[in-house]
Amino acid sequence: MFQRETHLNQFLMGYLDKVVADIPNDRIAERGAGGGHPPVWILGHLAIVGEMGQMLLGGALEHPEWFPIFGPGSSDEVQGADRFSKNELIQVIHTAYPKVCELAAATPPERLEQPHGFELLNDTAISTVGDLTTHGLTAHFAFHLAQLSAWRRADGKGPIM
Predict the structure, then answer these.
(1) Is the pTM of this model over 0.90?
(2) Which domain of life is it from (predicted)?
(3) How far apart (Å, rounded) are the C-alpha atoms in residues 14 and 142?
């Protein structure tokens, strides 16, 4: 189970590394053109959502203090953004998502069919633990990766080859 999602997530994480490579650490708190999220929030959000994915599957948040800063519903006005480095946030992402993939592959099918209990997504097509895991590894990750890509393109950086 979750082989396809794992494969897609690995692709997205490789692309993440390319997208953030030329975003300077000292500019990660800068808002994107048109009011887009700053990279510090996007990276922190991906990191904490990866840890939430672990928690959903029986693991734990390794950075619970980040939840109010980067969790769902948080403001992208990150207070004290200079305490976070691009490399630290990327490392947490690279640690969290492989763990989600491992946990997902080992989770019993009956657990994956249970409601996820995440109120924000009630009354949506994402209704089970399995649905939310798939969303976190693929569409959600890709959506925020696109925001990082838009930030760097608005900064005048060329396409990634």
Answers:
(1) yes
(2) Bacteria
(3) 12
